[in-house]
Give the backbone structure.
Amino acid sequence: MGRPRPGGGRPEPPAAAPGPGGGWPGLSAALWRRPWARATLLLTPALAWFVLIYLAALVVLLITAFWRINAFTTNIERVWNLGNFTLIFENPAYRDIVLRTVGMAAAVTVADAIIAFPFAYYMARLASHRTRTVLYVAILLPLWASYLAKVYAWLLIFTHDGLLNWSLGKAGVGPVNLIYTNWAVFIVFCYIWLPFMIIPVYAALERIPSSQIEASQDLGARTWRTLRLVILPLVLPGLVAGSIFTFSLTLGDFITPILIGGTGSNFMGNVIEQSVGIANNVPFAAAMALIPVAIMAVYLLGARALGAFRAL
Amino acid sequence: MMAGKRNASRAARSALILVAAGLLAAGCGSSSGGTGGSGGSPGAAATGAAGKVPTANLPTLKTVGKGEGTLNLIAWEGYLQPQWVKPFENQTGCQVHATYAGTSDQMVTLMKNGGGGQYDMVSSSGDADLRIIYAGDARPVNISLIPAWKDFFPAFKSPAFNTVNGVHYGVSLQWGPNVLMYNKKSFPVAPTSWNVIYSPKYKGQVTVPDNPIQIADAALYLKAHNPALKITDPYELTQPQFQASVKLLAGQRPLIKKYWGLASQEISEFKNGDATVGAGWPYQVSALKGTNFPIGAVIPKEGATGWADTWMLAARAPHPNCAYLWMRYISTPKVQAEQAVSYGETPDNKLACPLMNKLQKGSCDLYHANAPQSYFNSISLWKTPVVTCDNGQQDCVPYSQWQQAWTTQVTQ
């Protein structure tokens, strides 16, 4: 049967008797006797919110994707058709945009994993308690700063007369023109989403008992072999959990490409933003928005198979 | 464990059934609505302008009352400078809240989604006005309540882009050209043709607006350089003329540093040395001049596209008195002159010229406030491309295709 309510402090009355005059003591006793009622009471607000706002919005999105707009007034016409999807799949430009977005998300994820692993390893296993705290704060601190401030900071670094070219000029190397290219977008994405990779990898690394690594070494495995056969398999769920963040966040972002990107920097998020905010073609935006949803569904199924959700 | 799993799958199944039921219900409801509505006649809808204005019979104000204390405006950057907004707020008590838009399309969308009571007015251009009017997002204006209107140049009193069947949906504001901007350090001699923004010589230094109406700029260039295409109006393009213009822009893509979205982006591109030449508005030119940047601007020999803006009244403007007070204020010669000099455009009020010269010597000539009709004719003012060409033929490419070509073939 049910466990005593945590955090209550006072011992609960085990008997069924309602308190004098009903009220809260009676209620808590009644709830204590019925675990299902407790669960309902706690979960209903969150679940109602989830179903009404989140799922309903997704269903509306799904339906809208099969409508179209009036070409002149851009009012929505509720005529069922597959035009939006055929346009996305048959037009080479939209196909390129989908592939470019997935490619960028994958590249950012791999790069962040490569950067995050040694960093998290140092934090979890080598650093002193004090250093670890300092590093932790260093990772979390940028998350408190405004997203836009961070992107604009990179704009100032990359721009033609910016910090990067100024430093390269001082060092006697020619200027590089990174601003308004996809390389710039890639670097900024890697920087912005890095904490979301480091934290789950760090959590996974910290959970590995030292005894397992010692046992591996006692059995004759050298550093590389221990890393490959013992540490990496144990960290994999953490890496996959982190990759869910970096991948999905890159998949949906449109602000960095607008501010930092150049001529070939239309991503799925930009097409959606332009379709809604400029062309007022909500049905087409809905169709486009379903693609990252589908990609993430496949990705999450794969991640579950790799055990990512055990690391959360 | 087993039982839990079975429960979970049952829950999932019932959730699925619920979703399916919802889909069905929504489907039934809307398909019946669709057959009754405009669904059957996409052809008639696409020609657009032939239709009726849904808001044409809404009542207008008879007298302007006391301001409501607030005025929510959608504007181009540079149109709501404190220099003339502050005195208006002090006179009328209407506090101005501004939303800035980067393109006409964005203005149409903002009016559609915020026309339900957020916004009072929009300073939209001739290529957006009719779309706003026919979508039912604009409200008739009683022009007799705006005294300064009688001093407007005749071309801007009741222009076809904001007046339908004699009903005004706003008051004309100002107009001007889209100019060729260049960094004087890179161009000691001012360029005379738009060909510099199509020339590989300036690869990676060119910047143009991220705006489908830019196809008209290419058409204007081809009108002069490829007479075989027989382009007469850059906003009325037949399929071959349209394809040639889009092809010119697709070929320009490798030369482009950035398609700018907001005027402030183009200003920082020039300032940071990322772009040296491009298409822009006089606002960017005067903003850069204000910081002593060596910026130059010309109207090249091919002519230029341009805009004529209107302060349009929203169909459900929550502060109509403040909106009328604003229309009265913004059309007076003094404010017209202030905005013209600040932005670098041409006022619609013919009495503004001497006041402009008072603000800045020679600015009346500089910004063409008393220029002859021939100057007006050299600017191709933005208008919404529709299927029906001016000669009555139904073979012009409509704006929705401009938008699509811009994303799929030009900027990609």
